[in-house]
From TrEMBL:
It comes from Tepidicella xavieri. GO terms for biological process: transmembrane transport. This is sn-glycerol-3-phosphate transport system permease protein UgpA. The chain crosses the membrane at residues 12-30, 75-100, 112-136, 156-178, 205-227, 266-287. Belongs to the binding-protein-dependent transport system permease family. Signal peptide: none annotated. Keywords: Cell inner membrane, Cell membrane, Membrane, Transmembrane, Transmembrane helix, Transport. The complex is composed of two ATP-binding proteins (UgpC), two transmembrane proteins (UgpA and UgpE) and a solute-binding protein (UgpB). GO terms for cellular component: plasma membrane. It comes from the Bacteria. It is found in: Cell inner membrane; Cell membrane. Its main location: membrane. The keyword Transmembrane applies.
Length: 294
């Protein structure tokens, strides 16, 4: 027998929704509208003199070679972060799901990195890989590997990729583990009785049934790599050395807050939003075809 919930007051549902709607309006809708408006304006750093310039900001951004370098850098960075955050998370989830004892402690330990703020996570990795005092850097030098993310752009990019991916692994792990636990054990037991190896069971049963979870995490991971990695980059490299780690979201910050070019920064934020929307639509158009919702 299904129970139907009836609110005693017709305004109660709207009152319950009001706080979330207010937060969305104040912190998301209003700033986004302001950014779109500023993208068509030119103003001084204090906002005292505002001039409507139309598409000039977009033209200046799209004709700047440094912007296209940042686009390529962002695509490489986001792809690496997404892949490196998904693959280990899936492997850890499979290992945790196979445990009989200690699964709760194992799961709790793996969730700790997600509770760490991005800036703190970046500082932790910066200390480990610091060329002067870092433990990992000392090991690399002992092995004959030259490592200096403060001077070498490739080393700096590798460092921020690893730190950003490590921060997201816990989030992906939690969803993969929930997906694995929802798979009927009878399917795996039947396949094992038929002689299917563990790898064959994973490839033909487990991973196809995890495809909705994988697709969801792929979209979330892309958005995370484009936007939420700002704290890591700002704490570790501040976009350096020589702008080697200046991805699009950090370029928006630098041009707007540091260089005080508010019009260009706003135009870049609009273009970044359109780029992420476009990539998400491509994922839904092509990747989702391989997703099995059954």
């Amino acid at each position: 027998m299904q129970r139907k919930v009836i609110f005693p007051n017709r305004w109660l549902p709207y009152m319950l929704l009001a706080p979330q709607l207010a937060v969305t309006l104040v912190f998301f809708i209003w700033p986004s509208a302001q950014a779109v408006m500023m993208a068509f304006q030119q103003q001084d750093p204090f906002g005292l003199a505002v001039q409507w310039v139309g598409l000039e900001n977009f033209h200046a951004v799209l004709t700047d070679p440094a912007y296209y370098d940042s686009v390529v850098r962002t695509l490489v960075f986001s792809t690496a972060v997404t892949v490196l955050a998904l693959a280990p998370a899936l492997a850890l989830a499979v290992a945790a799901d196979a445990l009989i004892r200690g699964r709760g402690a194992y799961t709790t330990g793996l969730m700790v990195p997600y509770a760490i703020a991005p800036a703190i996570a970046g500082v932790l990795w910066l200390f480990m890989f610091n060329p002067a005092i870092g433990v990992v850097s000392y090991g690399l030098r002992s092995a004959g590997v030259a490592w200096n993310p403060t001077l070498d752009g490739t080393d700096a990019m590798i460092l921020v990729i690893l730190a950003s991916a490590w921060k997201q692994i816990a989030y992906n792990f939690l969803f993969f583990l929930a997906g694995l636990q929802s798979i009927p054990k009878s399917l795996l037991e039947a396949a094992a009785i038929d002689g299917a190896s563990p790898w064959h069971r994973f490839r033909t049963i487990i991973f196809p049934l995890l495809s909705p979870t994988t697709f969801f995490l792929l979209v979330v991971g892309l958005v995370y790599a484009f936007f939420d990695t700002f704290g890591v980059i700002h704490a570790v490299t501040a976009g350096g050395p020589a702008k080697a780690t200046e991805i699009l979201v950090y370029k928006v910050y630098y041009d707007g807050i540091v260089a005080l070019d508010l019009g260009s920064s706003a135009a870049q934020s609009v273009l970044l939003m359109l780029l992420v929307i476009g990539l998400t639509l491509v994922q839904f158009r092509f990747v989702e075809r391989r997703v099995h919702y059954s």
